[in-house]
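ok new one. same drill as before - structure tokens go in, u give me an amino acid for every spot. 508 of them this time. try not to just spam alanines like last time pls lmao
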């Protein structure tokens, strides 16, 4: 029978392993049966408060297991959930709620002040009141009947610090299509124990959430403070007997840079799945030296294609200065490269990564112009509607069809008469033993490349190494050594903030 709704994953696991822990945090754990019961109660409370179906329900999330029960409650009510960071600035939250006009906003007691400040936009529901609501099976059945697999399951808002946030709407069918592939390809089973790092407002967490539900696995939410003290993090992974990590690449790099892996390593780990930013060989090699038996998998994909669209299981050794491929397309997705005139590029030539397939988002909530600009007719097909998504990322494909990420489209610059990819400079600089994190950006007005880095050597020493390792036209002109690299809420290097801070500000 065709699966139509992601809730079928929860229901199958609740039937098969009702008393097994599904999700746990520092204070609370939900078995599959408890999760289903809480979600149905929440769904009833939401459905009783609003007759709207396929409407957004905002959940203020703070990395608690109960956040997920609230999200699934929105689905039981025949709606879709929008997880928003409870620590987000109020003006940004207001802007998003104004865009959404949600059916409700679910919050917990810790976020009561924030929720009350948003009460003008929609009805509020305290999560424990929703979880205490008696289940109305007939109401839930009627709501469920109206939901199709092409209807939304969630909307994730982009994390950029400037401009209007974009709400990316993803359907049940897209999530099911991706999770069915990933469970098989990455060999995730009910025996796995996962350590969740990604916040629930970041689409990376979709993998933890739905692989847990599909496979009947267990996910422990890692306390945020443990990433400040990597020894505690390794102790947590060891105590919980974590077998699989599905992490942002930045978190993976952070642990490698901390030096903790040379002292202790999680003994039960068998799979590490990375995504969100370019995976660097130097940090990967530190993990592989400590845990050679682990299968490392590099994934790539923007939120608009349902989490990921390419994958690369790492089977060979890479030198610290080498780029690690993003691999080949995930099942039921086509990934190809187009030039600036939307023509296919031959192997070995850089082009924009474009994607087609079931994973494409439905678009940006309430933003038709932006949707039409990013989701376009496949220029290779003049015969019937056939959408593709333009990622804005550049890659190169080799003769075997293997893709390697180069840079963002705005990361390809013209400097000293040469076309340069900033990502190539970053890969080289990152291979230097003294550098931990690095980001490069270009000042077109002054024709200068800036390098911001964290590390143990001063800028003169780094500049000397750069001159010895890079062609003259790729050597950064200015170096900024910082104690900590700024990151956005998704864990990616906050490049807009760096540009704002350093353009026109000289240090050497």
């Amino acid at each position: 029978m065709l699966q139509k709704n992601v809730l079928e994953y929860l229901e199958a696991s609740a039937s098969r392993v009702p008393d097994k822990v599904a999700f746990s945090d520092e204070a609370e754990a939900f078995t599959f049966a408890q999760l289903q019961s809480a979600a149905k109660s929440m769904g009833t409370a939401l459905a009783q408060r609003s007759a709207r179906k396929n409407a957004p329900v905002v959940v203020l999330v703070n990395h608690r297991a109960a956040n997920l029960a609230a999200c699934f409650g929105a689905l039981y009510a025949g709606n879709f959930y929008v997880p928003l960071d409870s620590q987000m600035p109020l003006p940004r939250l207001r802007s998003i709620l104004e865009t959404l006009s949600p059916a409700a906003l679910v919050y917990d007691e810790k976020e009561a002040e924030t929720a009350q400040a948003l009460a003008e936009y929609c009805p509020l529901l305290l999560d424990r009141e929703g979880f205490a609501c008696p289940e109305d099976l007939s109401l839930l059945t009627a709501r469920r009947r109206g939901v199709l697999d092409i209807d939304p399951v969630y909307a994730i808002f982009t994390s950029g610090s400037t401009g209007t946030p974009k709400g990316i709407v993803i359907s049940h069918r897209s999530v099911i299509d991706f999770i069915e592939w990933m469970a098989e390809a990455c060999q995730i089973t009910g025996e796995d124990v996962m350590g969740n790092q990604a916040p629930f407002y970041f689409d990376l967490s979709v993998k933890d959430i739905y692989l847990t539900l599909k496979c009947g696995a267990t996910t422990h939410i890692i306390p945020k403070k443990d990433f400040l003290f990597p020894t505690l993090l390794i102790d947590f992974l060891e105590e919980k007997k974590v077998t699989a990590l599905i992490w942002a690449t930045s978190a993976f790099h952070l642990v490698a840079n901390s030096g903790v892996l040379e002292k202790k390593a999680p003994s039960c780990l068998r799979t590490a799945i990375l995504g969100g930013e370019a995976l660097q060989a130097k940090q990967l090699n530190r993990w592989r030296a400590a845990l050679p038996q682990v299968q490392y998998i590099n994934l790539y994909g923007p939120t608009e294609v349902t989490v990921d669209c390419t994958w690369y299981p790492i089977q060979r050794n890479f030198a610290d200065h080498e780029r690690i491929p993003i691999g080949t397309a995930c099942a039921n997705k086509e990934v190809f490269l187009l030039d600036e005139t939307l023509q296919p590029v031959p192997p070995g030539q850089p082009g924009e990564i474009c994607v087609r397939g079931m994973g494409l988002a439905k678009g940006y909530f309430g933003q038709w112009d932006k949707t039409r600009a990013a989701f376009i007719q496949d220029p290779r097909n003049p015969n019937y509607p056939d959408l593709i998504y333009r990622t804005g990322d550049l890659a190169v494909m080799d003769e075997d069809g293997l893709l390697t990420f180069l840079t963002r489209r705005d990361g390809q610059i013209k400097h000293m008469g040469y076309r340069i990819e900033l990502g190539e400079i970053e890969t080289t600089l990152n291979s230097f033993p003294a550098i931990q994190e690095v980001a490069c950006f270009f000042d077109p007005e002054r024709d200068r490349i800036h390098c911001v880095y964290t590390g143990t050597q001063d800028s003169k020493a780094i500049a000397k190494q750069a001159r010895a390792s890079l062609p003259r036209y790729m050597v950064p002109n200015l170096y900024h050594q910082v104690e900590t690299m700024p990151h956005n809420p998704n864990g990616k290097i906050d490049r807009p903030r760096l540009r704002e801070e350093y353009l026109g500000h000289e240090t050497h």
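Residues 32-49 form the longest helix (18 residues). and btw The mean pLDDT is 94.
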